[in-house]
Design a protein that fits this description.
40% helix; TIM Barrel; 388 residues; alpha/beta; 8-stranded parallel barrel
Length: 388
Amino acid sequence: MNEKKPLLAFLITCIMVGAAVMAALPFASTSVSARSFTPMFQRGMNYVSWPPDFDSNASNASLAALKATSTGWVGIDVFWYQDNISSTSIFPTSNSPSNESVATAILRCHELGMKVFLKPMVDPLDGNWRGEIPATIAWFASYGKFIDGWASFSQANSVDLLCIGCEFNGNDQDAVNWASIVSGVRQLYTGPITYAANWNEYQSISWWGLLDYMGIDAYFPLTKVADPTVEQLMAGWSPWVANIQAWQAFVGKPVLFTEIGYRSIQGTNENPGDYVTVSPVDLQEQANCYNATFQEFYNKNWFYGFYWWNWETNPSAGGNADTGYTPQNKPVQAILTRWYSEPWDRGNIPNISPVPVIIVSAGASTVLFIALAYLIIRKKIRTPQGAV
């Protein structure tokens, strides 16, 4: 019997399987953007309206105060809702700003010389987190209509950057459906796009190559130290920075912190995303966290900006007795202004992702591994008993 024939047939089968695996991953292989794109550093701030009053005189005054901090980009956050994490209907409520009021805020930002990052978001009304919304065909169909509406709105209102999703930990590994979302948005909006991945999820997303920026909601815990110094906070940033830098080199996209923030409370650095814990006011820890973060990222040429959480439409928000996130009317506002007055020069990152090469290599490695395993097993089976 010719023993080479089964081996040859097996190798051909492996190659076909590997090709099928690679064919099932078209998102990376088509991820090299054909459009011209030059990343811009973004001195940003998330801008929220609770209750919705983006078109008020107070909002106009608040935006003028924000401009005075040398902020150059305003992340306008728009909230729509669904009943619970299993719902598939997405809708506005009385807490959602009208399209007209959002358009007014965009116009005001542009009049002040600030660019606009529009961030539509979806929250369950039952108190669960949007990161628990599962991947279902019906939900993606509903979400596609939602984000396509805002893509058309962004095109009509000269939005400078659009976020296509935020912190969907429960479904953002579904590359097929998110590729479809991206495709739909690209047909309606010609500006750059990003996705706001949660700090513990950004490395699980395989479709970064379809976007222009890699967005991270950067609520990374920094230390377990009470009243940490700036130096201790910078040391706490170090492992996270190394991970982000390594992933950025893999993805090949400029990095944005689509959200980052610290409350003015004791212990804010230990769990920055905790917005409910009651703790004493600590203006110094908030200030130290800002200072450490600015220092840590100032010279990282792959890093393209912050969107701090958050600035409110009320120009009198914040103050020295406030325990929330806003830097308004607190000592940290001066720190923000000083750092945003720095040049933040950046070298351009080529918008060509190495992901396709790596995925192809992964497919080839799979084929070779299967073939090698087959040869080893075959050799063991053919080895006579008692052989050394």
